[in-house]
Amino acid sequence: MDFMKYFNNKKYYCEQCDKKFDSQDILNTHAKEIHKKTLLKCSNCGKTFLHEKDRLHHMREEKQTEKENRKIKGYK
Ligand SMILES: [Zn+2]
Ligand SMILES: [Zn+2]
User: Fold this and answer.
1) Does 52 reside within a domain?
2) What is the residue-wise DSSP string for the chain?
């Protein structure tokens, strides 16, 4: 499966120019140097985002997932 290989190898892509990178670190450096952006970090998992709205969206989803996981485990 070529697609999966590609997906796994180049997981991190720049939203500004669609370039793909091997690691979050390289993407961070690229975004800072090329686009003069500071990436916003999710305080939960450390994932980074270029736009605040993306980060908020991600964090909302993360909370939702957490709730559902708790339900599955039987907590209230
Ligand atoms: Zn870029
Ligand atoms: Zn997160």
Assistant:
1) yes
2) -HHHHHHHH--EE-TTT--EESSHHHHHHHHHHHH--PPEE-TTT--EESSHHHHHHHHHHHHHHHHHHHHHHT--
